[in-house]
Design goal:
The protein has 325 residues and is an alpha/beta fold. The protein has helices spanning 2-15, 18-36, 45-52, 82-90, 105-112, 163-177, 182-202, 219-225, 243-257, 276-285, 305-320, and strands at 39-42, 64-67, 93-96, 124-126, 141-143, 148-150, 209-213, 227-232, 264-269, 289-291. The protein is 44% helix and 13% strand.
């Protein structure tokens, strides 16, 4: 019986016109190409930008990197959309910030039902793994009346040195997915890290210059570039300041004015946050408001990870004057 089926199949194939066979083969090749395409979904534009420096290794296979939170949006206040579930269903790898920053992803992953992307799956990447964390808390997730925060400050991508760790985690997931492309993935990462090292050699530090910030976004950035963030406009993340809190900040700033070289030099502000309080405090202290992008795409001309730092450090340099090397 099996011989008869094979013979019948051969006869049918032989009877198919050559052009039809070619079309069938073309469709099969298209389906194979679609199956080998690498799809990476990152929760934020920063992680998407870092994943994108590795995916050129897959350019011939149609690699794609998608972002859940639109560039320039506040990820901590983000409300997922139905289309985000479909992105995750089709994804091979998901890359998240973690630390409670994108807490909404857990529910999306359950709804998407893609086992590869669940915690512990081959395609699950938590970018915070291995990062030297700041503002570490005892609790796993804390809701402080504003944003939900995790066990540490989640804005670790704002230290460019942490890109070494983040890209390492993404590269490991890509290699698990496509071990035959290991050398190309590693080479792509090494090229990016070489460029990053060149930029870090020319980026300036600010040697203890004191600033006030609107939101608790900048501890990793401040550690890397030696800024001293003395306090925040928000009394807690996501909570609007009271008049009493603003008065205390102004008094703090005026106290530093009486200490030569220790005065508050600027108020740091994110473009998506309400600006009135930052402008008020800055005006009372006679210092500029410096608008910095907390994320790739958060301001014009911040479309990739390295340019994000170029733009922010240029804005600081304009406001604070000559930095230290």
């Amino acid at each position: 019986m099996r011989v008869a089926i094979i013979a019948l199949t051969a006869a049918v194939v032989a009877a198919v016109p050559a052009k039809a066979q070619e079309r069938t083969l073309e469709r099969g090749e298209e389906r194979a190409e679609a199956r080998t395409a690498v799809r990476v979904v990152a929760t934020t534009a920063d992680l998407a930008a870092l994943a994108s420096v590795l995916t050129p290794a897959f350019a011939g296979d149609g690699a794609a990197v998608e972002t859940i939170v639109p560039a320039g949006a506040d990820a901590e206040a983000f409300v997922p959309r139905p289309g985000d579930i479909e992105k995750l269903r089709r994804a091979d790898i998901v890359v998240r910030v973690g630390l409670g920053f994108d807490y909404w992803l857990d529910r999306l992953l359950v709804q998407a039902g893609n086992p590869r992307l669940m915690r512990g799956g081959d395609g699950y990447v938590d970018g915070s793994a291995g990062i030297p964390l700041l503002d570490v808390r005892g609790e796993s997730v804390v809701n402080e009346g504003g944003h939900a925060h995790g066990a540490a400050n989640p804005h670790y991508w704002l230290d460019p040195h942490n890109a070494l760790i983040i890209t390492g985690g993404i590269a490991e997931a890509l290699i698990r997915l496509a071990p035959a492309d290991r050398e190309r993935i590693v080479a792509a990462r090494e090229r990016f890290l070489a460029t990053l090292a060149e930029r870090m050699a020319v980026w300036h530090a600010y040697a203890g210059m004191k600033v006030i910030a609107y939101h608790d976004t900048w501890p990793y950035f401040a550690r890397r570039f030696r800024l001293d963030v003395v306090d925040f406009i928000e009394p807690k993340p996501g909570v609007a300041p009271s008049p009493a809190h603003l008065a205390r900040l102004i008094d703090l700033g005026r106290q530093t004015e009486r200490q030569p070289g220790q005065e508050v030099r600027a108020v740091l502000h994110e473009p998506h946050e309400p600006a009135e309080a930052s402008r008020f405090v800055a005006a009372k202290l006679g210092v500029p408001v410096v608008v910095l992008a907390p994320s790739v795409g958060g301001m014009p001309a911040t479309g990739d990870y390295l340019v994000l730092f170029d733009t922010n450090l240029a804005a600081l340099g304009k406001a604070l004057g000559e930095p230290s090397r």
